[in-house]
Write a structure and sequence with these properties.
- With 323 residues, the chain is α+β, with helices and mostly antiparallel strands.
- The chain folds into three domains: 1-78 and 202-222, MutS, DNA mismatch repair protein, domain I (3-Layer(aba) Sandwich); 84-184, no CATH class; 223-323, Trna Endonuclease, Chain: A, domain 1 (3-Layer(aba) Sandwich), CATH 3.40.1350.10.
- It is 43% helix and 17% strand.
- The chain has nine helices and eleven strands.
- The protein has helices at 19-29, 57-65, 83-115, 118-149, 157-162, 172-184, 211-217, 226-240, 283-295; strands spanning 5-10, 13-16, 34-37, 50-55, 69-73, 207-208, 244-247, 255-258, 269-274, 299-306, 311-317.
- The strands form two sheets. A six-stranded mixed beta sheet has the order 3-4-2-1-5-6.
- Helix 2 (57-65) packs across helix 8 (226-240).
- The radius of gyration is 34 Å and the shape is flat.
- The chain starts with a strand and ends in a 6-residue tail after the last strand.
Amino acid sequence: MTEPIPIHISNHRAFVFDVDHVAKLRTAHRITGVLGGTLPHLSQQNIFLGLPLILLPEEVFLLVSKGFAILVSDPGSYRTPSLQELAEWDDMRIADILRQLSRSQAQEDSKRKFAQSEEALRKRQEREERRRRDALARQTGASRDSTTVSSAGPFTLEATVSNVAPVPTPTAATSTSTASVLASNVFTVSVPMSSNSLSWHEPERHSFSTLDGARIAGIWTYPSTDAERAKCEVFRDLWEKGYYMGGGSKFGGDWLVYPGDPLRYHSHFVATVHSSPDALLRPMEIVAHGRLGTATKKAHLLCCWDPAARKVSYLSVEWAGFG
């Protein structure tokens, strides 16, 4: 039996931080979640996101009830470190920075050796020769223009040519100084991707394999109402039928229901959950669901949980023209 996936709970929200666990959730358990982390080099956008993976409450309910995952209190998993542990962590951090600086220096040395090779020198000479030819052509064009207007004023060819600024050519000293300036402005920052390896990280004392245990500890209380319990039961029933589910708030429902992986398929249904057969459903809601679902090329799925019979009933609504 495989080890359960740890779901980290912080402020009553569920996160998965390990990329292998994210892949396993998607491929083995048909749980997609939503990526909510900012990419390091693209921090000013929200289109392409990274870890952690944020799970829906219904997804957490399913994973824990099936035994696929355990809940871990993220703030409670870290005890106060001792002074010795902090000193060892600081030594490891400094050693990591020095290793990164050493790799960066090795890369700079290899670039410098390539710049001094015969091929690089030949290419540099060709570039300088092209610059000289371009400068000469510009000076020749300027001299022709000055010859044309010399009869109308005191301008001479010599004066015109003398006003043309010489084109600077790069020298070895200039290149070396530029490289040194660039190298001096390179800073290496060590950003650990995981804190699970810290010696004061002890999740075993704050892990829960059941929802009741997590509820008693106060880290996870979902589901706590009849409506939330109905959502969890409907979600489990759809999952057991082989569907994938994702957030459906943009389409006026609780979830989008996919026949396969959302990376390969469009959703077929927008699902809305009703907590009991006696729940109020106005005719205008049916019309709105049908019109919106049809406009987005989906059928709206009305899902009703019967707590007495402990079964789910489904009714799909699509808008159709008559006459």
